[in-house]
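Late entry, written up from scratch paper. The run itself happened at the end of the previous shift, but nothing got recorded in the book at the time, so transcribing now.
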Amino acid sequence: MTAERIPVYLLTGFLGSGKTTLLNSALRDPALANTAVVVNELGDVGLDQVAVAQSSDNVVLLDAGCLCCINPGALHETLADLVARRTRGEIPRFERVIIETSGAADPAPLLHVLLGHPLVTPDYRLAAVVCTVDAQHFLPSRIHHAELDKQVAMSDRIVITKQDLADPAPVRALLHGVEICEQPFVGETQPKERLHMQGPLLRHGKRGGIRAYTFRPPALTWASWAAWSQLVARRFGARLLRVKGLLRMEDTGEVVMVHGVQGVFHKPQRFRDWPDADRANRLVCIARDVERSEIEETFKESETHA
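Output as recorded:
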């Protein structure tokens, strides 16, 4: 285990949305010196890693000058190997890792690795999920590709790309309630109030589509948290795309950060005290085809089973 866990940024976004361009630009910033980059690219011949490798001297190069390229199933092995090689002095001491996913990738399996794999969690912590949204093609593309909605919904930060080619205002309006930023790889995202997504963003079918709901749960104990997380996992399963929150457990006094991805909850991260000025429970639930009232009902039900 490393003395201080290494922050990891997961960079997602649809095919051609500008992930590699964003990464190239970010890596020229001296603030991102000593960054290790992991590229997960579709196809037998990788090109993204070549582009990134040429972008900056700040990048930690692996395997005799190549960036590390993986398939999703090998991410845990790649990250464990990075720490081992850093410890042995075979590569420079990187301070953060950015994982660039393929444009067609579902971020959920990679999140499970980052949040819950025993070879990963002792040495790494998830800092933020970053998504590139193409101002030129996002609106027409999401009609035919549902994965765009999921990538956006599961992200902590959005970067609107290609603003020189198209007016970003329509996309920005539809992303109401999502954090839009220009420096996505600096600092870590804490759970906070998210406005309910408005208008047609992430809406499919006759129900609510993908929505983000913020709750202020009352006093919780470890037993009531366990009862609630088990209940929503059974009831909503993969429709509960992501859960994240900061909670105080009344029976032990601990403040914990909780994470759930598609109905699977991972080991909470413990804090000695509240990490920010907001000293109240907050829980963000991002779900597909689940109404707010349905989640609210689970809080009441779990109280009777705790």
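Residues 174 and 201 are 5 Å apart (CA to CA).
(Scratch paper discarded after transcription.)
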